[in-house]
Amino acid sequence: MSLKVGCQLHPQATTVAALRDAWCRADALGADSIWVWDHFYPLYGDPDAAHFEAWTLLSTMAADTEHAMIGTMVTGNSYRNPELLADMARTLDHLSDGRMYLAVGAGWFERDYDEYGYEFGTVGSRLRQLEADLPRMRSRLAKLNPPAVGSLPLMIGGSGRTVTLRLVAEYADSWNCFGPPENVAELSGILDDWCAKVGRDPSEIERTVCIAQDDIEDVDRYVDVGVDHLVVMTGAPFDLGPLESLIAQRDSLR
């Protein structure tokens, strides 16, 4: 599989106008994917800085862009009913002409839960909820009329060796974790073991990795450990230079 590259635009300490400009520029540059995160408050810097909701932003991103796949990196599963989430993703898949990911994780940012009235629970309870909700999403996607027009890959984000990677093996079309390459290699090996246990071909699962802007040089480090898709994370003022570097390296490999 050819390497894909993309960017995650952080919807904090910025404006909607700046976000729209950034994702339009990323799409025009040739990014394979463009993402936002699914949180309700900033994750760094001023905790009360401006912030915007992910799925509402995606509806505009779907209309503004033409080429890149789009999605959340990743959606907090606890925040929305799984049937509704599946329907939202299917609808955005139509709005984007088949360029949507349905990307989910168990959730972790306690402030989101506390301030929006969700039960934070424990890591175990959130993982149990994710495990219960994944087949509900799959079932709802199969029932929706009309169905998705694209492949609408189901991504699971996370690095939990005992539960999360097992769920990836059982349900996911794509999996996201974080660098460096050594971390990816270790987790990929564990995922391969889970695939063997559940009878899944590990090559069916796209391996996506989020990286910092200072980790974009020599993408062969990631390709060598089986990464299919690199996503550079960036906040305002949305310098897309690192994305341009990834695109140039991607193109040199093709």
Question: What would your notes on this structure say?
Answer:
The chain has 254 residues and is of the alpha/beta class. It is 43% helix and 16% strand. The protein has helices at residues 16-29, 54-64, 82-95, 110-116, 123-143, 164-171, 181-198, 220-223, 241-253; strands spanning 4-9, 33-36, 69-72, 75-76, 102-105, 154-157, 174-178, 206-211, 229-234. Strands 3-2-1-9-8-7-6-5-4 form a nine-stranded parallel beta sheet. Strand 6 (154-157), helix 6 (164-171) and strand 7 form a beta-alpha-beta unit. Helix 2 (54-64) runs parallel beside helix 3 (82-95), helix 3 packs across helix 5 (123-143) and helix 6 (164-171) packs across helix 7 (181-198). The longest helix has 21 residues, at 123-143. It is globular. The mean pLDDT is 97.
What are its keywords?
254 residues; alpha/beta; 9 helices; 43% helix; globular
Summarize the structure.
The protein is built from nine helices and nine strands.
Number of strands: 9
Order of secondary-structure elements: EHEHEEHEHHEHEHEHEH
Beta-strand percentage range = 15-25%
Radius of gyration: 17 Å
Structural class: alpha/beta
- Physical arrangement of strands within the biggest beta sheet: 3-2-1-9-8-7-6-5-4
Uncertain ranges: none
Main sheet record: 9 strands, parallel
Average predicted local confidence, pLDDT: 97
Overall form: globular
